[in-house]
Write a structure and sequence with these properties.
about 55% helix; alpha+beta
Amino acid sequence: MTGTSRRDDRGSASLFAIGCLAALLLLGAALGVVAAMVRAHRLAQSAADLAALASASSAARGEDACAAGAAIADANDARLLSCRVEGLEVVVSAEVDGPHWLGQVADLAAEARAGPARGP
């Protein structure tokens, strides 16, 4: 073996390390987007749950149920997409802005129901 073969391999570990670092960076960005989407969905579900409870409470008092749900959704940085009142039972759908990272444009929505317990 001569000294020239050693010189030809110099720097090859650097390329491998840069490739691994790029892969880890890409994986971290993807996990960040997934975590942001899960967080946004949890916010949407919380806003829908609270809006449904407020709507059902207002319906039981004879007030405008959907207006109360919209106010609570707005207070939780969400939009009330739909509100359906059937007696004392209310079904609402709320939407929050999704993460707009790396080309994501979808908003996340959730639905909730509140009212008296159903019979057997």
